[in-house]
Amino acid sequence: MSNPTYDTREETKRLIERLFPICRSITGNGVRETLGIINEIIPVNISEIPTGTNVFDWSIPKEWNIRGGWIKDTKGEKIIDFKNLNLHVLNYSLPVHKKLSLDELKSHIFSDPAHPDWTPYRTSYYRENWGFCMSHNQLIALKDDEYEVFIDSDLSEGSLTYGECFVPGEIEDEIFFSCHICHPSLANDNLTGIAIATRLARLLKAKKNRYSYRFVFVPGTIGAIAWLFNNKEKTKNIRHGLVLSLLGDKGGFTYKKPRRSDAALNRYVELAFSNGNYPNKIIDFYPYGYDERQYCSPGFNLPVGCLMRTPFGQYPEYHTSADNLSFISFDQIEESFVFLESLIYIIENDKYFVNLFPECEPQLGKRGLYEHIGGGNESQKRQLAMLWVLNLSDGQNSLLDIAERSQLSFKLINEMADILYSNNLLKSL
Questions:
Q1: Angle made by CA atoms 58, 63, 67, in degrees to the nearest 5
Q2: Residue 76: which residues within 8 A CB-CB, separation 6 or more?
Q3: Which of 224, 262, 264, 422 has the fewest beta carbons under 10 Å from its own?
Q4: Taking residues 278-299, what's their average pLDDT?
Q5: What is the pLDDT of residue 2?
Q6: Is the per-residue pLDDT at 374 higher than 80?
Q7: Considering the entire predicted model, what is its pTM?
Q8: Coil, helix or strand for 99?
Q9: Could you tell me if 311 and 246 are in contact, meaning their C-beta atoms sit under 8 angstroms apart?
Q10: Cis peptide before 190 (omega within 30 of 0)
Q11: pLDDT (0 to 100) of residue 368
Q12: Is the CB of residue 191 less than 8 Å from the CB of residue 247?
């Protein structure tokens, strides 16, 4: 590994800008290049699953790689060129080099009339086809002419690639993060998720953690399925998890709950939203979306939710050339990272204590504990937090329970618990 830390906002920005030009898909060298760059920052264990391997009810597809593609008119002028925008070629397109009429060409063109200036992102993963994407304005401007089309690609036996970074903690119980790495030059979907996951892993590797952490970087759907197929035993340690995606647009947060109604993650996320006063929307699980639907499939039923800002398909730029570097907000990306830091803080520090002086309140003054409280309104909050911790620390209420019931911040409750514990007023369970 090289030296860049990527632990600041500016370094996160540079990582996204570096990854943006790469043409990624569910297989191929674009995925490998992306994982190689991530591996410069955090240690990534890279797996290759051969074409034709059965993973549950699916089979690993042929590997796709592309070097170029264009459409020329009879004057030899390029109408569109893959080198200018990799969305111009249908993702997973077969190779082609031929001349054809406008009518023949139109059957292989994809556009979006609702947003006529943008080029859509389209794929043909599991049905062999070739084609191009262009803005609708470009399409309607095409003249009745003969066109030369060229796509320099391969679709052949190879493998599917995914990456994994594991950060061991004091216990085997894991917090799990997943992000999809299959999209080409789309910034919000999902370079934001990739960059934030990378930065979180880097941060956690530099700290002593109670939980272990696992970060997986997988092609959407088939990659998550392949990871689950190869890692059934590892899933038994997952206690909380999130799919990270769409974390750079200007919308508020959206949290999609896991399939399991008893997932403790729901309470942690709600408290983190509340403590940070973040605009948010919490929605129930439904079996469509990102890879949470694989992790929450009935055979696994993992406590894995999805954290987004504006949900997929609910902002116009989704899956178009308008999802570019100017669309995302690095203020929002930073806020997403800070929120996840606060969520991890709550999960890491949620513990059970027992009050060692349960018969009436212990005398705090003779222990000098009021010196830790200070003066003014803030001192009243700190004193109240100390009393809440003492009163509810009966071995049945965790710090999460106390923070929820007291409506005080988890950080304050945790700080007061640490002070009481260091003064031998609490015993940790």
A1: 150
A2: none
A3: 262
A4: 97
A5: 37
A6: no
A7: 0.95
A8: strand
A9: yes
A10: yes
A11: 83
A12: no
Residues 236-247 have pLDDT tens digits of 999 999 999 999
Which has the closest alpha carbon to 197: 42, 1, 29?
42
Residue 94 CB-half CA count within 13 A:
9
Q: Which two tokens stand for residue 217?
A: 């970087």
> What CA–CA distance (Å, rounded) separates 120 from 69?
16
- Can you tell me the distance from the alpha carbon of 89 to that of 325, in angstroms, rounded to the nearest whole number? 20
Helix (H) or strand (E) holding 342: helix 330-349
Tens digit of each residue's pLDDT (9 = 90 or more) over 218-231: 999 999 999 999 99
Q: Would the pLDDT of 54 be above 80?
A: yes
Tokens 């001349």 belong to: 99
Q: Determine the Cα–Cα distance for residues 64 and 350; give it in Å rounded to an integer.
A: 46
Q: What is the DSSP string of 115-173?
A: STTSPBP-B-SSS----EE--HHHHHT--S-EEEEEEEEEEES-EEEEEEEEE--SSS-
Sheet holding 352-355, edge to edge: 394-398, 352-355, 426-428
Residue range 136-194, pLDDT digits in tens: 999 999 999 999 999 999 999 999 999 999 999 999 999 999 999 999 999 999 999 99
pLDDT at 394 over 70: yes
Residue partners of 398: CB distance under 8 A and separation at least 6: 350, 351, 352
Integer Cα distance of 315 and 336 in angstroms: 18
Longest CA pairwise span in the chain (Å) = 93
